[in-house]
Amino acid sequence: MPPRIVTLERHITEQQKLHPAASGRFTGLLWEFVLAVKMIAREVRRAGLIDILGAAGHQNVHGEKVQKLDEYAQERIAEAMLNSGSVCAMASEETPDMIPIPREAGRGHYVFLFDPLDGSSNIDVNISIGTIFSIHRKITPGEEGTLQDCLQPGYKQLAAGYVLYGSSVMLVFTTGKGVHGFTLDPTVGEFLLSHPDLRMPPRGRIYSINEGNTASWDPGTAAYVKHLKEKNEADGRPYTLRYVGTLVADFHRTLINGGIFMYPAAPKPKLRLLYEAAPMAMIAEQARGRASTGSGRILDIVPTELHQKVPLIVGSADDVADYETFVRKARPKT
Ligand code: AHM
Ligand code: MG
């Protein structure tokens, strides 16, 4: 028998049966998000044509206003969430404060946090970019979402996922029952289940870090990377280095092939807890991997501000545990 084709729609309907408490509103929110993603994917594919179709802020040959891709992604996703009528609070990496939800839009009990276009410096050079999202349930009373609703630790996430605009467009997400990956079939415009129940290998042989920062790493990170270059726990050979500079792409490779991605504390943390580290940490743990600051679980961090940055060490469980051991050993004895 040929393999059964499972659309995202069918998968979600089947998953809903596993969560008897799940409401159709969550599914509705996901549909709106997926529509926004398809529109962003279309624009990503045309990004290289921007010079001949019209520069950002100007009109293209069709007389349409051309927007920068990250602004376009931000607007499409925010609009989609408003259309869902299921969101009480929204915040994005692109805006300093929470995104207002007008009363007329209707308010539900979901909190939506997102990075609309991750790896945006890679757009101009035609390298993979992504979108990341995280969903929490409202915890404060009243209809309006508050900052407190956004500042919840990662272990309370209801769902998390990302979209990779790569050689194909993929949506990978979890609602706390494993991690599933869908690939967009451009001929029918549907996401089809291509990677059911993704599991990170317990150990990999690829490491991913910005080596340009070597001179300012903390001693634990420096010792660990030196170790990886000397011998590999798996087969005695050195680990291979791969670094795209788009978290979504580096994470996706780590999820599929195993290994470790590091954006350590020194010289300074860069990745945002709410829009990048916490959602990736939920996906990693759901896929049996591990996500750490180097000394503690990412999902346990209680955020104190919307744009808080944290170190992120994520990947195969054994590799991340090794990193933590190196950091612990390098710490000065008190
Ligand atoms: P962005 O969301 O503004 O694009 O920045 C985050 C990106 C991540 O995707 C990536 O892992 C990291 O920045 C790369 O940073 P660096 O260039 O310092 O290595
Ligand atoms: Mg980002």
Overview of the molecule:
The protein has 334 residues and is α+β, with helices and mostly antiparallel strands. The protein has 2 domains: 8-195, Fructose-1,6-Bisphosphatase, Chain A, domain 1 (2-Layer Sandwich); 206-330, 3-Layer(aba) Sandwich (D-Maltodextrin-Binding Protein, domain 2), CATH 3.40.190.80. The chain is 33% helix and 21% strand. The strands form 3 sheets. It has a 7-stranded mixed sheet with strand order 1-2-3-4-5-6-7, sandwiched between helices. Strand 4 (159-165) and strand 5 form a beta hairpin. Helix 2 runs antiparallel to helix 4 and helix 6 crosses helix 9. The longest helix has 23 residues, at 24-46. It binds 2,5-anhydro-1,6-di-O-phosphono-D-mannitol and magnesium ion. 2,5-anhydro-1,6-di-O-phosphono-D-mannitol (AHM) is lined by residues 93, 115, 118-120, 210, 245-247, 270. 2,5-anhydro-1,6-di-O-phosphono-D-mannitol binds at residues 93, 115, 118-120, 210, 245-247, 270.
List keywords for this structure.
334 residues, alpha+beta, Fructose-1,6-Bisphosphatase, Chain A, domain 1, D-Maltodextrin-Binding Protein, domain 2, 2 domains, seven-stranded mixed β-sheet, five-stranded mixed β-sheet, 9 helices, binds 2,5-anhydro-1,6-di-O-phosphono-D-mannitol, binds magnesium ion
